[in-house]
């Protein structure tokens, strides 16, 4: 499963608690990048367990990112039920919050939850998740996770096709091609090409009926 963008903690003038949270967050994310899922889960869970209910606004962003990292470590550990619950809690937490970091968190959390739901053949809910992730980026795509948005278009189209929503599937694939027609980014180009192949195969299948 893809390991999405999770920005490095940004050190600022901070209280001792805030410094501790940021240091632990950096350690937890580094452990996950190194493939040490159990260690990452332990460190990030400590942050979440101790500070999730903190009323200090200075903690909110770092704890939210720790919650995202913890959810991803749960996915790495194949604890899908716990991961879905963690992603749902995170989405509720950051809903409506302004700022790029929170928008990125909503996009990644919705995308990852949708992938888990799709793997369970819960295609209607998966489609809702992918559509939500795409909608969060309308008009101002966060550059660091734009490849996730391209992937979300293809996976939304798959979820729609599973529900026999053929016209919606074509529309989603067309939007993908229109949105990134000439991207030089290999990751984005891969998903655009996958979308083109899917559209052509679907068109041929329908023509052969």
UniProtKB/TrEMBL annotation:
InterPro entries tied to this protein: TPR-like_helical_dom_sf, TPR_rpt
Domain of life per record: Bacteria
An example of a Pfam family matching this protein is: TPR_6
Q: What is this protein called?
A: Uncharacterized protein
């Amino acid at each position: 499963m893809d390991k999405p963008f999770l920005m490095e903690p940004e050190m600022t003038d901070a209280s001792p608690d805030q410094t501790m949270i940021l240091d632990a967050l950096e350690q937890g994310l580094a452990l996950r990048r190194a493939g040490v899922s159990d260690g990452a889960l332990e460190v990030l869970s400590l942050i979440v367990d101790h500070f999730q209910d903190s009323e200090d606004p200075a903690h909110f962003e770092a704890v939210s990112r720790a919650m995202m990292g913890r959810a991803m470590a749960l996915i790495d550990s194949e604890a899908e039920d716990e991961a879905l619950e963690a992603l749902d809690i995170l989405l509720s937490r950051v809903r409506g919050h302004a700022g790029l970091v929170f928008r990125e968190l909503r996009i990644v959390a919705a995308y990852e939850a949708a992938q888990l739901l799709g793997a369970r053949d819960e295609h209607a809910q998966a489609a809702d998740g992918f559509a939500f992730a795409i909608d969060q980026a309308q008009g101002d795509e966060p550059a660091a996770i734009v490849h996730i948005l391209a992937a979300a278009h293809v996976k939304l189209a798959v979820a729609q096709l599973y529900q026999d929503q053929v016209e919606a599937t074509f529309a989603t694939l067309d939007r993908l091609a229109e949105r990134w027609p000439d991207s030089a980014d290999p990751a984005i180009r891969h998903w655009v090409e996958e979308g083109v192949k899917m559209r052509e195969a679907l068109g041929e299948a329908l023509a052969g009926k």
